[in-house]
## 1
Amino acid sequence: MDLQLRPIRRDDVPGLTALLGQLGYPTTDAAVHKRLDYWLDDRASWLIGAADDDGLVGVAALHVAPMLEVTGKLGRLLALVVDERRRGRSVGRSLVTAVEDQARAAGCVKLEVTSSRHRTRTHEFYRQLGYADVCATSARFVKTL
């Protein structure tokens, strides 16, 4: 498999739609097109795709925000998904490495990721990459607007 990491493009919509479905967020091509309208124009956000001869096989979404409490920026890995047929072949690791590189280049001093508690295999993946589960020391609150 000859893997290429590159920015997501508009012609990736069908593959991106399928990947989001595999992640547990079923959607439509039309909805993904609308999301790309704001993602592709946001200078603080990056969508990094992993593609091979068969097309898009993975995607990672990064957003960067300045921090007030310390000097530097915070990167958030908002989404990471690898096609279920390509998992276990270092595609996810390659995408996370690319996100970390982009976050450093953007001035990030921290990178965080959230993951639903039922995704235990994913949690082990992040631990292997050096991420720490800090839920015992930091609460996360969410409100739907």
Note: The chain has one domain: 4-128.
## 2
Amino acid sequence: MEPLQNISIQEWNRLYGRFQSLVNKLENNLTQDPELILLDNADLLQLFKISHKTAQNWRDNNVIAFSQIGNKIYYRLSDINKLLDANYKPKSNK
């Protein structure tokens, strides 16, 4: 049996409305102040395609600012942008 086979129009509209609400929240978060957007360690690893050890080294060597609550580590998007800006190498015109 297909999971959505017997869904009514009203149920479909309700699900669609919830989906649209989530999309709107995500879009609003993307336009938020980078100081307010937090990424966790898994996000950082995926974003930079680095290992846990590399992320640990960056934290230990003060390469990137972070907050730790219990075992969970968070990074501000603004701090990630600062890291990228600090290591930016403009294109050379050779």
Note: The chain has two domains: 7-32, 38-86.
## 3
Amino acid sequence: MTVLDDRPEDRTQPQDGFVVDGIVVPAGDLLDGITPVAARPVAAALLGEITGIYRRVLVEDVTVSPAQRARVRIAGEAFAEAGGAADTAADLLGRFAAQVTDAVARHRPHRVVSVVRVAHLLVHDLLAGTGTPVPAAPAREARWALVQRLVRQERLEPAELAGLEDGYVVVAARFPRAVPHDGLAAVLDEHHDDGMLGAPVGDGVVVLVPRRLERRAGPLLEALAGRFGQEPWTVLVPADRAALAAGCKEATDVLALAAATARPGGRYCLDDVLLEYAMLRDPVTSARLVALVAPLAGNEVLHATLEALIRADFNRTVAARELFIHRSTLDYRIRRIEEITGQNPLTGRGACVLAAAMVAHAVSGS
């Protein structure tokens, strides 16, 4: 039996490309690098089958059928018989899925999760057909426990480290508003195939994405934002196997600082919060800064006033407008803040110290 057996006629694709619901994936970009040459017709037939599957997923919002999965496994057998390597076949499907997913994320984001889920299944079936062992994904509890231990900076045993891949990208996301825990769990369950390990952490998630699958970080973040209707703070940190705990700490620290400094949702990196990060690395300095503004925490009016000043870059006119108060009222509150903290918000040094102290206080509370 060949991969073409039992395929509906309308899945035949033109020689110059594969069309998925208006998305054109050039055939040459995918097939020219396939070796040996004898494996290219099999690869083209495989992509024709895959195209039909994605079409059905996008139009009908259904998953891949058992018969379709069986044909993909047969395609893997045919590809191997033609001399094609398993990793070449998996890369072919991965590149095809990446182009489809990128287009779907732009034009039909509500279908991204379905496409990614089907892509995972197809790669598994293809590898099964080539005779490549497909490792079972760890159970949810095991995935969560491992990631959460890394976030807590706990040491992994040598045997646990040996079971991980050589390199990952730590993908972390945190939401401005609380999201349901079961919703986070559902998204993580949809993205745990092929070695991706994730767990809920606070109001967000931390996911270890194997470096070979880095292109899947984008669809994962799109799925999170789409599921909860709000743009999270996100960060991606490359980390080798031995440095995963450090990568998790950097990622969660950057997210905490992005939240504490009231930045808008979006992607951040260490350089975006470098000064705040350096300050928080010194526990003595952080503690003194927290103590500086701690008395303001009990005074809702003064605390809100200082927050407004920081958001306004210490522009009194902008801050007064945001607070809906007269400038003279704002000036009185500023004098009270100086009396309590010993720092004048209207001087350069005082503004820097108070802004840093508010960040330290917000992070310590989170």
Note: The longest strand covers residues 167-174.
## 4
Amino acid sequence: MATRIGFAGLGRMGAPMAARLAGAGFPLTLWNRTAATARDLAREIGAAVAATPVALAGASDVVVTMVADDEASRALHLDPGGLAEAAEGRLFVSMATLSPDHVRALGAALAARGGALIDAPVSGSVDAARAGALAVMTGGAPQDVARARPVLQAMSRVVLETGPLGTGATMKIVVNSLIHGLNQTLAEALTLAESAGIATRDAFAVIEHSAAAAPMLGYRKPLYLEPQAHPVTFALDLALKDMGLALALAEAGGVATPQARVTRAVLEEASAAGLGGEDMAAIVPFMRRLGRPS
């Protein structure tokens, strides 16, 4: 009998990930806080819809969640009518960017009800989610990761085991801290080149063929060159959230992270300037404005 999958959280990343699972032939049930989003996607990909989180869990063997933050995850699982009320015998796969402390506490709460949790956040773009080319970093008991692996493989190009529960979340914070630092540094580099009279496209072309190139620069190139001409794929305020998680992790571990502090400070300033809902590539025009004399 095929593993029944429940998927909760159908945002920019969650929707294409759920579509990959449907395309792989898993019996799929959807839930989303905005019910119309779940209904529309279900019609498109041939899935069922659950009226509540607990109904979603009850209809599933493995429940995948992709939500915005710790509070959304806590509410989805532990509020009345939440997923945890049908936890017995089920495996929960948290694929969002969450704090390790929350992941471990949630794992304990689900275990107390007879369920199991792994954290399996992803790295990659919306296009990578559509193509099933995400990188997944997984923390949890080996038997639970093994149980989830066929589900994860349907959405990814690689599944990397990182250790006990919470280590996947830790590695996602580490990776995103690096990405947001690169985002900030790229913005500074482009504005520096522009100040010397070099066209932005020419400067970007040199950077993407240099030793400083990273895959992120390639798939985010249109957003850096024309940020207003493309839909948001990663909101600036989510980057700010990530940097808060990174600095909390650094403080708990006694790790010096001066670059991360600068990155967060600039993101805070950009968010205060009204750019929080725009793509994180908006940091490029923001840096241009910062450099102009008053």
Note: The beta strands are 5-8, 28-31, 48-49, 62-65, 91-94, 116-119, 122-123, 134-139, 156-163.
